[in-house]
Amino acid sequence: MIRETSYWINHRRITPQARTSAITTLPSIATSSGVIGTAVREYAQLIPSSVVLGMILLASICICATVIARTRAELRRSASEYQQLTLDVNTSRRMNAALQIDIKRAQSDPATIESIARARLGMVRPGDLVIPAK
Predict the structure, then answer these.
(1) Along the 134 residues of the chain, how does pLDDT read in single tens digits?
(2) E strand or H helix at 129, and its extent?
(3) CA dihedral 90, 96, 97, 99 (to 10 degrees)
(4) Burial class (CB in 10 A: 0-12, 13-18, 19+), 5
(5) Is residue 5 within 8 Å of 45, Cβ to Cβ?
(6) Which label site among 6, 10, 24, 45 has the fewest CB atoms less than 10 Å from its CB?
(7) How far is CA 41 from CA 27, 53, 134, in A?
(8) How far apart (Å, rounded) are the C-alpha atoms in residues 114 and 2?
């Protein structure tokens, strides 16, 4: 496995396009490219390709686990919000039904009409004694 990793590093080619696309504004490094290439080869020989693959897989699994955890949290929050909205809608429907019953009573029941007229409009029956409060 060490040979597989170092083979690519040892046999890579630098194309003329890659050389010309290098950034020329960076300051030059005092070390030669041979020393850097040797250091990279030595470092690559120390880490087998299976370890690099394992690290990549571990990082991918961690990213997937994070995405799944966030998605589940958002799903729980959305479900809770849905339940709250459903509860609010049901409460509003019950209140609406109660108000519909009150409207029907106010339109048809004489006792309800009289109590509304006395309470909201301040009306009295003929012959009732009105005592003003000071």
Answers:
(1) 455 556 656 666 655 555 555 445 555 555 556 677 777 777 767 778 888 899 999 999 999 999 999 999 999 999 999 999 999 999 999 999 999 999 998 899 988 888 888 888 888 888 888 888 87
(2) none
(3) 150
(4) buried
(5) yes
(6) 24
(7) 24, 18, 103
(8) 99
